[in-house]
Design brief:
It comes from Eragrostis curvula. This is MADS-box transcription factor. Pfam families: K-box, SRF-TF. By secondary structure, the chain is mostly helical. Among the domains are: 51 residues, Transcription factor, MADS-box (SRF-like), CATH 3.40.1810; 52 residues; 57 residues. It is 75% helix and 4% strand.
């Protein structure tokens, strides 16, 4: 199905207008980014919505793009190659000076190259250092507080784990004691059974021997009763 051509006029429906604005703004920024990457161009896009909200995209510093635009606009023509070269030379000199100033300020913060400063500048530098030191101490205190809280949490966790291990150890210890008691009771029962069996084996043969002895003593008596008496000579 062929899509119809969009009529270029204001969309009256507020919801449809907002949806279209969001979609087309995203597409516009995407195309601007592709143009900057593919063609090595400096691209900047500024968009204000109907509600006054600002949306922008820049392939480099938006401020440098705007300054370059003003320079070009003042000349009422696009910069030539020589003019553009001079502009970038001036930009490089400005950045070099800015870097030098930053390095100089850094050395002064370290307490170096203070001979050229007057009292007010030194006082301002001192106030700046005190403020920086105050912020550093606040950050240090915050860091230490977070570390202490983290250590306290770890300590609490370790105490809980230690308590759990202690309960497990006590349970295992009690279980071992119960097993030893059961083993001792079974060992006692086995010893008692062995002792009773030994007494029985020692007592039984003695009774048999008594019976044999009684039998042996009684046999001559029965034999004497069965034989006729021998007459005695007078």
């Amino acid at each position: 199905m062929v899509r119809g051509k969009t009529v270029m006029k204001k969309i009256e429906n507020m919801t449809s207008r907002q949806v279209t604005f969001s979609k087309r703004r995203t597409g516009l920024f995407k195309k601007a980014k592709e143009l900057a990457v593919l063609c090595d161009a400096q691209v900047g896009v500024l968009v204000f919505s109907s509600t006054g909200r600002l949306y922008d995209f820049s392939s480099t510093s938006m401020r440098s793009l705007i300054e370059r635009y003003h320079h070009a606009k003042e000349g009422n023509q696009f910069m030539s190659a020589s003019t553009e070269s001079k502009f970038w030379q001036a930009e490089a000199a400005r950045l070099t000076q800015q870097l030098h100033n930053l390095q100089e300020n850094n050395r002064r913060l370290l307490g170096q190259n203070l001979s050229g400063l007057d009292f007010e500048e030194i006082k301002s530098l001192e106030n700046h250092l005190e403020m920086s030191l105050h912020n550093i101490r606040l950050k240090k205190d915050e860091f230490m507080t977070n570390e202490i809280q983290e250590l306290n949490k770890k300590e609490t966790l370790m105490i809980q784990q230690n308590e759990e291990l202690r309960h497990k150890f006590n349970a295992i210890h009690e279980e071992n004691i119960n097993l030893r008691k059961k083993l001792s009771e079974r060992q006692g029962e086995r010893n008692a059974q062995k002792s009773s069996a030994t007494e029985y084996s020692i007592t039984s043969p003695a009774e048999d021997d008594d019976d044999q002895v009684q039998l042996e003593l009684s046999q001559p008596q029965h034999a004497a009763k069965g034989k006729p008496e021998t007459p005695t000579l007078s």
